[in-house]
Amino acid sequence: xxxxxxYSFTIxxxxxxxxxxxxxxxxxxxxxxxxQFQGKATLxxxxxxxxxxxxxxxxxxxxxxxxxxxPATSGHDHLSPENTQVExxxxxxxxxxxxxxxxxxxxxxxxxxSPDQRGxxxxxxxxxxEE
Length: 131
Known about the structure:
Blueprint: H1 4-27, E1 39-43, H2 47-51, E2 55-58, E3 61-66, E4 78-81, E5 85-97, E6 104-113, E7 119-123, E8 127-128
Antiparallel strand pairs: 1-5, 1-8, 2-3, 3-4, 5-6, 6-7
């Protein structure tokens, strides 16, 4: 009976670790809208990216919308397939105002370049990096 407290603590710690891992899987990969990324990244049509109208579907699959002119919420001029590996060339934090409720958001946009030398600005909701 001396060890029951230690075993209870170990079981509790294991359960907490498993719960944290499960939450991370449910939440999905980290997105670049709140934290500035550098280096290599991946374009992803996350739930938030799709909800914000920054990605969609084509006949050939999901795509992320990019803008060569600068950070944009509309008027995109380039489509990049989801899961394209890119190099982040620059990051810029922008203030956006939601039309529905007037709420202001600070998010990062990234100037990205794919291996085929195509690129543009992508919203941080659509950019992820492995931790």
